[in-house]
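User: Can you predict the 3D structure for this chain?
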Amino acid sequence: MRKAAPARRAAKATARPTPAPRARATAKAAAAPRARAKAAPVPRARAAPAAPAPRAKAAAKLYKLTAAEIRPIAPGHGACIASDKITVGGSPVRFMYREPAIHHVDSGWRFLSGLESDAYMQDASHHAFYDCNTIANYDRSIVPYLDEPIGSAFEKPPGAAEFARVTDWSPPRE
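Assistant: Here is the predicted structure, written as structure tokens:
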């Protein structure tokens, strides 16, 4: 028979686990009757530390229009920011302005109902990004103004059908 090289022998030895040596039973232990072993008491598991309270989720918004009700009225104008007073409350757009975009899909348009207080405006959960087409579905009277340049602002007094250009206002500076 051929002897394996020492490196191969070492590799074979480490490749197979060696069995643990078995204890030999003594004659006395074999002759003695087996005593029923008492089960060791199971230690009680410690209570897991309390999980941190989940963060309060924002309440789901119930929009005035469903996705199925949105039609292609003004597609291709990009995104905008609109107040929940319009999208959830169903108020018409009464004030709109266009500022420089803050995102590559943003058109810069901002739509408000005119009923928002300063405190309401400070809460970011009362506004969201939408496609301008979505807001046009809420109030079609905005469509003729969507191509106006940055810096444009319009308001619609209660009872009026058309927007009027605002010249004595500029967007708030951050």
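Residues 71 and 116 are 27 Å apart (CA to CA). The helical segments are 6-15, 27-31, 84-87, 118-122, 132-138.
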